[in-house]
Amino acid sequence: MTASHDAEHDSHEVVPPHPHSPRAEVAVAALLIGAALAAVAFIYVYSLEKFSAQHELLGITLAASFAFVAAALLVLATRVLPSEENVEDYPDVASPPEQEEVAKMIEETGSGITRKRLLVGAGGTAGGAIGLAALTPALSMGPWVEVAPLYRTPWRPGRRLVDDRGEPYKADDIEQETFYTAFAEGSSDRNLGASLVVVRVDPAALRLPPERASWAPEGILAFSKVCPHAACAVALYRKPTYGPTQPNPALVCPCHYSTFDPRKGGKVLFGPSGRPLPQLPLTVDPARELRASGNFSQAIGPSWWGINMEKPH
Question: Which of 100, 134, 205, 228 is the most buried if burial means most Cβ atoms within 10 Å?
Answer without folding.
Answer: 228
